[in-house]
C-alpha cells in the first residue's frame, strides 16, 4: 500500500524536474540560453567542419552498377556525375553492368563528392527544451545557404539524380536538427 509520503514524492518528481530545467536555463550564462543566436552559433560551428556530400561513405573505384539501377549511387547518379565530367563510363552489355572510373576532375572531387557547406541564416522555430539522456534537448528548425558549391554540382542532371543536393542548392532551404545543452553550450546532438 502506497503511503501519502510516497504519493507526494511521486507527484513532486515531475515538478522538481521541470523546475530544475527552468532554473538551469534561466540562471545560466547567456551562451546557454535557448535562443536563435545561440542555436545559429552551434549549427554554424558544426557545419563549418562538415561538408554536404553526395555519399556518406567514400566510394571505391572502379565502381559498378546495374544499368537499370536508378538510385543516387546507381546508374542515374553515376551518369549525372559522368555528364559533369567527374567519371567515365564503360558498358558491359553482356552482363548488364556499367563500370565507372574517375576522371582527373573526379579524383580532385574525392570519393564522397562533397559540394559545399551550410551557413545558417535563421532559426524560425524550436521546441521547448526537454531532458533527454540527462541533457536539455530541443529540435531546431533552421534556414541556410550553401557555400562553396562547385560548378559540377549545380546542374539539372545532378539535381534530378540527387534530391538532397537539389534541396540544398535551392532558394531558402530549411532543415531541422536536435541540439543539446552541454557544459560548452548548445551542440548538435549525437546522431544529428
Give the proportion of residues in helices.
25-40%
Low-pLDDT residue intervals, each spanning 5 or more residues: 7-27
Rg measurement, Å = 23 Å
Global mean pLDDT: 84
Q: Care to describe what's here?
A:
The protein is 33% helix and 29% strand. Strand 2 and strand 3 (97-102) form a beta hairpin. It is α+β, with helices and mostly antiparallel strands and 192 residues long. Strands 4, 5, 6, 7 and 8 form a five-stranded antiparallel β-sheet that branches. Strands 1-3-2 form a three-stranded antiparallel β-sheet. The chain contains six helices and eight strands, in the order ααβαββαβββααββ. The model is unreliable at 7-27 (pLDDT under 50).
Which properties best describe this structure?
single chain, 192 residues, alpha+beta, five-stranded antiparallel sheet, three-stranded antiparallel sheet, 6 helices, 8 strands
Structure summarized in a few sentences:
With 192 residues, the chain is an alpha+beta fold.
Write the layout of secondary structure elements.
Blueprint: H1 4-27, H2 36-47, E1 63-66, H3 75-83, E2 87-92, E3 97-102, H4 104-109, E4 117-126, E5 130-132, E6 135-147, H5 156-161, H6 163-169, E7 174-182, E8 185-188
